[in-house]
Amino acid sequence: MLNLNYQMSAPFGKMHDFASKMSFRGMDLEYHQFLGERFSVGGMIGWNTYYKDKGKMSGNFKFKGSSDIHTITGYQYRYVNTVPIMAIGRYWFTDQNSTFRPYFGLGVGTSWTEMKLDVGQFSSTNSKWQFAFAPEIGTIIPVNDQFAFNIGAKYTYGTKAGKVEAMQNFTISVGIVFMGN
């Protein structure tokens, strides 16, 4: 089974403090192999981006290689990009002949997270790989033996790594599913 999903995502925690707007720019690609009627394993790679326009602000900054503090005034833009890569296990509550196939799953893996701050002509970027996990619920709605729709929700948590704070988001996914025999 191959899924291609469009994602809408809301940041939480420190990620929300940095770039609080809900994102409508996200997607993921998943592959699942059934190990019987009720259990599947697979993997996914995704991308979500968050953005916040703070307007004209002043802030204190340190430049690399210097301990001096500089006050900079300018338009401040904040960005967060995440690229989760996870192994996924899913339990399916119904068999393949059902009108709806609800599932519960857990993804475990990593997420590359980049936090970027632009002030005027100056830019600061911190990025790290984080350990991440994502419990999920959803359902597929089969149209025929080879095609279905997917609707799901998941909470993703990536641990703090270096200067990159813990990443948390809640994501709603809608997509298409291609099923093999």
Automatic annotation (TrEMBL):
Domain Outer membrane protein beta-barrel: residue ranges: 35-178
One Pfam family linked to the record: OMP_b-brl
Source organism: Butyricimonas hominis
Key words of the record: Signal
Stretches of the chain forming a coiled coil according to its record: none
InterPro entries found in the cross-reference section: Beta-barrel_OMP, OMP/PagP_B-barrel
Chain ranges passing through the membrane: none
Name by which UniProt lists this protein: Outer membrane beta-barrel protein
